């Protein structure tokens, strides 16, 4: 009898619990599972995810539209942006001697003038050094190029191609007719070249003027911008610009060191092998080094080509070996040690930046691509630091040790 009464009581309890759960009056609420964890409807979860995705998609579209507008404005104002960008790059080179002169007591205008005149004198000296070399060796190189073309023609006429003279003459005639029919386009290209040369002269003059004023009034720029943006935003603008200036200066100095090493080693090899235009190729190697990864490759290929035309296949192979060895020294020793400290950019980002800049704006774009990307990286890092400073969790307080007796502080009074 006792067992039957216990079973009836348990069955009655189960029925009461089911009735309470159906009517919503049970102890377990509708928003919890049996283990106490909350649950949500599947449609609510999917809807929340889609809403989050739509919000971020709109943000990305808005950012892309803003970037497109800025790119369009930059393309229209490129004639102004280019001199300013080149002037900033030259200013980073001339700022250390200008600062040294001002610390020795010279007025800012005099220090800027002396630094700029010294830079122009150095540039004129390099040009005066390579022009006679080009004038003396260019005719010889042209004759060797003609001989090389004749050798190629003889090789083409022999086995296994066996191309006849009539076929070569017809190909040459087709090229001549093509050039004659494009005479108007060539003439337009000549006038376009004259216009481009005039634009280059104007750009160079504007760059020199901007460099002078940047060197003279540069230290007053940050305080002025701080006052324009106010104390709250001005400190962020000032901090970002200081980091951008340090990064840009580090990049220029690093590339100058790397380019100088490339030019010295490759130039020494060219001089030892008596390759024509060795001085000119050394200068081109130094200038090309300012375009990371791509410029040195192009300069090395040009050196190999000149060695092939001027000295033959054996010398060209030796020059190729020298170029590859110098590139390995640059890629495995110099750039990891120097550029990692100055830019902190991955090699893939550098390569993509140079490719994009070169495809959009030519040689100038390839030269300015890496500094621009490095400056954007500085801005992104600074924003990340500010976000981390706001969202970082507070430091956890040390839990008191129950076995340790702490002495009362001196300020605490007695009851």
Describe the structure in your own words.
The chain is an all-alpha fold. The protein has helices at 2-23, 42-76, 78-103, 108-157, 165-181, 183-217, 221-272, 278-288, 295-311, 313-342, 347-391. The longest helix is centred in the middle third of the chain and has 52 residues, at 221-272. The radius of gyration is 36 Å and the shape is globular.
- Distance separating the two termini: 68 Å
Number of helices: 11
What radius of gyration results from the CA coordinates?
36 Å
* Major sheet characteristics: none
Entry keywords:
single chain, 415 residues, mainly alpha, globular
Summarize the structure.
The chain is an all-alpha fold and 415 residues long. It is built from eleven helices and no strands. Helix 3 crosses helix 4, helix 7 packs parallel to helix 9 and helix 7 packs antiparallel against helix 10 (313-342).
Topology:
Blueprint: H1 2-23, H2 42-76, H3 78-103, H4 108-157, H5 165-181, H6 183-217, H7 221-272, H8 278-288, H9 295-311, H10 313-342, H11 347-391
């Amino acid at each position: 009898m006792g067992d039957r009464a216990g079973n009836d009581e348990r069955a009655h309890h189960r029925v009461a619990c089911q009735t309470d759960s159906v009517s919503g009056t049970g102890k377990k609420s509708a928003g919890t599972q049996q283990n106490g964890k909350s649950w949500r409807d599947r449609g609510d979860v999917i809807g929340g995810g889609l809403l989050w995705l739509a919000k971020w998609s709109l943000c990305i579209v808005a950012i892309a539209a803003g970037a497109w507008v800025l790119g369009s404005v930059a393309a229209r104002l490129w004639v102004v942006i280019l001199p300013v960008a080149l002037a900033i790059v030259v200013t980073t080179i001339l700022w250390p001697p200008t600062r040294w002169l001002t610390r020795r007591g010279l007025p800012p205008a005099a220090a800027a003038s002396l630094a700029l005149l010294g830079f122009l004198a150095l540039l004129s000296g390099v040009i005066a050094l390579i022009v006679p070399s080009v004038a003396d060796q260019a005719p010889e190189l042209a004759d060797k190029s003609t001989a090389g073309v004749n050798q190629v023609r003889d090789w083409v006429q022999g086995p296994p191609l066996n191309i006849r003279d009539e076929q070569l003459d017809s190909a040459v005639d087709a090229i001549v007719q093509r050039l004659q029919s494009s005479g108007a386009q060539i003439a337009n290209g000549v006038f376009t070249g004259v216009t481009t040369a005039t634009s280059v002269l104007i750009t160079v003059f504007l760059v020199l003027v901007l460099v002078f004023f940047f060197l003279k009034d540069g230290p007053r720029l940050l305080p002025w911008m701080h006052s324009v943006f106010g104390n709250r935003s001005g400190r962020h603008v000032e901090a970002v610009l200081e980091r951008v200036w340090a990064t840009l200066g580090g990049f220029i100095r690093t590339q100058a060191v790397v380019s100088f090493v490339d030019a010295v080693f490759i130039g020494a090899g060219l001089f030892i092998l008596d390759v024509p235009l060795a001085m000119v190729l050394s200068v081109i190697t130094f200038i090309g080094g300012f375009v990371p990864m791509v410029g040195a490759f192009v300069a090395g290929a040009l050196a190999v080509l000149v060695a092939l035309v001027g000295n033959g296949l054996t010398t060209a192979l030796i020059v190729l070996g020298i170029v590859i060895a110098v590139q390995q020294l640059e890629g495995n020793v110099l750039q990891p040690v120097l550029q990692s400290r100055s830019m902190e950019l991955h090699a893939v980002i550098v390569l993509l930046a140079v490719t994009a800049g070169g495809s959009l704006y030519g040689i100038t774009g390839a030269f300015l691509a890496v500094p621009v990307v490095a400056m954007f990286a500085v801005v992104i890092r600074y924003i990340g630091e500010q976000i981390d400073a706001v969202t970082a969790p507070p430091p956890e307080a040390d839990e008191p040790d129950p076995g340790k007796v702490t002495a009362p502080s001196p300020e605490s009074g007695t009851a």
